[in-house]
Amino acid sequence: MTNLNATSTLSAFATSRNPATGELIATYPFQTQSEVEQLLDVNAAAFRLWRATPMRERVTAYRRLSATLRERSETFAALITAEMGKTLVSARAEVEKCAATLDWIADNGPAILADEPVNVDGDDQVHVSFLPIGTILAVMPWNFPLWQVIRASGPIMLSGNGFMLKHAPNVMGSAYALQDAYEAAGFPKGLFINLIADNETVARTIEDPRIAAVTLTGSMRAGSAVAATAGKALKKSLLELGGSDAFIVLADANIDLAVKAAVEARFQNAGQVCLAAKRFIVEQPIAEEFTRKFVAAVKQLKVGDPLDNANNVGPMARGDLRDELDGQVQRTLAAGATLLLGGKKIEGPGNFYEPTVLANVQPGMAAFDEETFGPVAAITVAENAEHAIVLTNTSDYGLGGSLWTQDLTRAQRIARRLETGGVFINGFPATNARIPVGGVKKSGYGRELSHFGLREFTNAQAVWAKTID
Fold first, then answer.
1. Strands 192-194, 444-445: parallel, antiparallel or unpaired by DSSP?
2. Average pLDDT over residues 19-41
3. DSSP label at residue 321
4. CATH 3.40.309.10 in the chain, residues?
5. Is it the case that residue 4 has pLDDT exceeding 60?
């Protein structure tokens, strides 16, 4: 992913272009420091109101927000597709996933955030309360314009926190549509509020006392910068910094099922998914068969207009991202990898790139060591299961991973040895409101979703009442 969502101090505008056609959609001027101060004041006032709002009323607002997203599903889906190129089918699914997650939070969040009693010796009464800490600044990416934001704001706001969104410049239309949905659902005006700013302004905002903490999904470089600024200000940060997830296929796997899942795991959203499978590590006895079937399946993918339901793969979100991906492919081939399919930009309007399969990819090559954020799959042959584990862990990243085998007992043992935030056995990485998501190593720290996410940005306040005779 790009540095701090590719916001640049060289431009005074956030610009949205249709990645399928190159047409300009809209520009959004960066807010001045005076405007940012006003936003912070409005947000702080809304936070004070929201934190005093009873939980039952917060839950009612969540249910209205879920209903609002479903009512506006076609509008949101069309906007997502226009701004970042996701196929319309996938965009609709993204909106529904957001609504379903809000439903789960409304159903389960109050119990998770309720006071938790603690048993101690004697008659003392002890409990832990999960209280809001203030407004959380969220620096979010473009690849899931709604889902990334709901994944963060949903758990964060139920406990009573405020939310300031610094979205990626190319999806500001989605950001404002979501802000409008929050307000239409009855959340206090300004509680969910958008920031359009360059890197310097974002840093100043993190330092502002009205911001309690920061969460970021983006590149390692962006995460390092944000974490350093937050740390200097003694503020908590949560970072999800992408990954180079391994898709391990052992010799006893069901190859046909693994191939089908592998294609979807790599090429969904044109390969622009942090949790997507990127490195395919296949045990030697089945490597030839897996590779042959995988290449044949990838050849069947249709690339083109994301509004056409017949197409599986849309454009990449921006031209510079396509250039970066192509550079990774060329450097990998120059280092000795084999090109089995694709490997080129598609000429004509839009940021399309051929679905690409590289073989004989080894540690030290770009497609193995780096995050390839686009429709490129890298195949590496492992001598055996032990070698597959070593190859998986030979990465700076540790977000998610897949493991394919029919021996579930063995799979459970292997999973504990993989240095990742999640392991999916006979499935590919996905997110679910009930399951925590996050990484280790240079994929970041902290957890979103589930009860971990609901409590991540709360003050776990211990209250110990001693009994007096």
1. unpaired
2. 96
3. H
4. 245-396+400-432
5. no
Please say whether the beta carbons of 367 and 329 come within 8 A.
Answer: yes
Delimiting residues of CATH 3.40.605.10 domain(s) in the chain: 3-242+442-464
In sequence order, what E strands does 122-179 have? 125-132, 135-139, 162-166
> Which amino acid does the sequence have at 297?
A
Q: Tell me the C-alpha to C-alpha distance, in Å, between residue 406 and each of 412, 413, 420, 441.
A: 11, 13, 21, 29
**Whole-angstrom Cα distance, residue 334 to residue 343?**
12
Q: What integer best gives the mean pLDDT of the chain?
A: 96
Q: What is the mean pLDDT of residues 114-118?
A: 97
Give 191-207 pLDDT, tens digit per residue: 999 999 999 999 999 99
Q: Which residues pair with 127 in a beta bridge?
A: 117, 463
Q: Which fold has domain 245-396+400-432?
A: Aldehyde Dehydrogenase; Chain A, domain 2 (3.40.309)
pLDDT over 90 at 121, yes or no: no
Q: Give the distance, in angstroms, between the CA of residue 69 and the centroid of all CA atoms in the same chain.
A: 19
**Helix-then-strand count for the chain, H and E:** 15, 18
Strand residue runs (E) in 152-191: 162-166
DSSP secondary structure string for all residues of 2-62: -GGGG--TT-SEEEEE-TTT--EEEEEEPPPHHHHHHHHHHHHHHHHHHHTS-HHHHHHHH
Once rounded to an integer, what is the mean pLDDT over residues 18-23? 96
Cα separation, 82 vs 74, whole angstroms: 12
Contact between 177 and 75 (Cβ < 8 Å): yes
- pLDDT(123) > 90: no
**Alpha helices (H) in 54-143, listed in sequence order:** 55-71, 73-84, 88-113
Q: In terms of CATH architecture, what is 3-242+442-464? A: 3-Layer(aba) Sandwich (3.40)
Distances (CA, A) of 212 to 47, 139, 241, 449: 11, 14, 21, 19
Annotated catalytic residues are 240, 274
Taking only the tens place, the pLDDT of each residue in 38-91 is 999 999 999 999 999 999 999 999 999 999 999 999 999 999 999 999 999 999
**Dihedral of the alpha carbons of 342, 249, 449, 126, in degrees to the nearest 10:** -160
Give the CA radius of gyration of the chain. Answer: 23
- Within its chain, how far is the Cα of 247 from the centroid? 18
Share of the chain above pLDDT 90, in %: 95
Which two structure tokens, joined as six digits, stand for 108? 């389960």
